[in-house]
Amino acid sequence: MLPDFDPESIAHSFPFQAKDWLCSVHIFEGQFAVTYQEDKRTIRKFISPLSVRQALEKIPIDTGFIPPGIVRWGMFNGDQWAVKFIPPQKYTLNFGLVEGKELSLSVPLPAFVFLGKGTTYYLWAVKEKTVLPTAIVFHAPLPNIYDNGAICFGNVSVLRASLQVMDEVWSRFLGSVFNQDFSTNKSKKYPDNVIEQLKMVAGKTTKKYPNNDLVPMAKSLTVAQIIEQFV
Q1: pTM score, two decimals?
Q2: pLDDT (mean) for 93-121
């Protein structure tokens, strides 16, 4: 038995004018009802999910050129999310006034997994040089990051996540002035303040961050597992 509904009342319930209305689709268990206008008549048809899928398959979808480092992308509840893998490299970090002096450190950091969803961004460290879904994630050895990996941007404006903005948000984060907020439990050698660890690494001639100093998350989670928690 087909579901009963009044297409005329549905058509008149829209806030825009009839001339703007092309079609509406209503979802019922096991089938779809499409309502549209043709020659000033309102027409209703019941169509199968297969027909809807075949119609939607004809709509072109193109991400454009995907920026380097993006390893996953998706949408959920209207928000895009993206995951970027960032290889180990050297950065210049600014900490503002520390003990009355401007502190700027040039320091090598480990590889990162950078996740953005909506206006929330997460950062975790990994020991591998290439992205592996099975790699164990660690706390990023940086202040201003919550225990779950969420970044505290402070006064820095944050763009809504998409494929096109991940590099810009990453640059804004690194270019911000770090402070000592959320600086504990990010280093085995300096558990009270990871900035001390960064000072020590910056003072050496090493080109690599000492991965043996990385602190694992509360639960030993892989890259794939921690991404699934937030998307």
Answers
A1: 0.78
A2: 94
